[in-house]
Amino acid sequence: MSRLVRLVGALVVVAVVAGGGWWLTSRGAAASPPTGAAAEAAASSATATVAVERKTLTVTDDFNGKLGFAGDYQVLGGLSGILTWTVPTGTVVTAGKRLYETNGHDRTSLIYGSRPAWRTMESGVTNGADILQLETNLKKLGFTRKGDRIGSHWDARTTAAVKRWQRKAGLPVDGRVDLGEVVFLPEAIRVTEISAALGTMVGQGGPVLSGTSTRRVVSLDLDAADRDLFEGGKAVQVKLPDGSTVAGKIATIGRIADTTTDQQGNTTSTLPVTITLDDPTSGGDLDQASVTITVVRSSRENVLTVPINALLALREGGYAVEVIDDGGSPTAAPSGSLSLGSPAGSASPGARTHLVRVVPGLFDHGNVEITATGIQPGDLVVVPS
Asked: 86 and 113, same structural domain?
């Protein structure tokens, strides 16, 4: 014990929180143990105790983000004429449904596909990806018949399926799809803005309306310095405006940083990050609502832990904890004397103790991981009362 400094008031380790992290300082680590009346006073005062625990410690970071919808789609005018009707904003338009109308009768409908429409589709046209997209949608919508072959070739069965769709949708039943009568988009569109006013001339590729997908996502501009915390597929927690928390996963991380400089000349580089929610219905119809994203920085499972204020600075460097000997009999602590650890009490003035050198590890909300020999879960260690 000659190389270890015994517990005295001057050796209590102080835990300081700053910038989200912990550091340790000690006051008078080289001071001599008290003598005389001071030693008697120190010996007679009761000291609180807590039990060593084995548990998981986790350090997290919080980031501000926005809850919204994925995708950014614009519907361009393919039918020339006076705009006489559009779907209202907030409407979700699915395959086969109308988007807008010109001249009181010409209608443009949504069809799922990644290739834009570029021609009129009818009997006799050459094979193409546009025909394949159209036939695939007609089959999913239930307008083809058993045995109809789905492909990039237009045949009589394609004409028949188109007529069934047109009849059901209230369109002119002519078995052909004129350029502008369908808009190919990869998925359903949630209309957010009408770009053209009713009664105005549209066509020639001018914007008519725009929207997003129906897929819920959280987006954030990540400081490039925190890039190492994010990786594709990593689980996160998202706190919604109503205070509830939902699980999510990091879907995409941008590779090109957006650099901005403020009026003071400070430069910030950010990367766009998209997070998907495990429950896509979370958040209701909220759009561009502020949320908090919690990301795990580091985690340690099944480790020995003590309250941070159980650590003592050693005169020769390093740290120790004061452990109650097996024969020690802690007494009940005064109410409110201890807020960390469980079970807790106060060491009897005559309880025997010994110091055990420990190596601190991860810090988490007032607790610290320790690596040591001769300490087990349930052992009582001394903390300031």
From this structure: yes
DSSP state of 38: H
42 membership: H or E segment, kind and range: helix 36-44
Degrees (nearest 5) of the Cα angle 368, 370, 372?
Answer: 165
Residue 124 makes CB contacts below 8 A (sequence gap 6+) with 154
Distances (CA, A) of 238 to 80, 224, 247, 293: 45, 20, 6, 5
Q: pLDDT digits over 154-199, tens only?
A: 999 999 999 999 999 988 999 999 999 999 999 999 999 999 999 9
Q: Which of 195, 186, 176 is nearest to 76 (CA)?
A: 195
Quick check: 160 and 175 in contact, CB under 8 A? Answer: yes
Tally the domains of the chain: 3
Contact 86, 155 (CB under 8 A): no
Which range scores top for mean pLDDT: 15-24, 84-93, 342-351?
Answer: 84-93
Which structure tokens are listed for 221? 């501009």
Indicate whether 208 and 176 sit together in one domain: yes
Identify which of 166, 170, 182 has the alpha carbon closest to the alpha carbon of residue 99: 182
Residue 1 lies in a domain: no
The pLDDT of 82-97, averaged and rounded, is 96
Q: Are 110 and 123 in contact (CB under 8 A)?
A: no
Same domain for 82 and 46, yes or no, is no
Q: DSSP states of 101-161 as a string?
A: EETTTEEEEEEE-SSPP-S-B-TTPPP-HHHHHHHHHHHHTT-S-TTPPPSS---HHHHHH
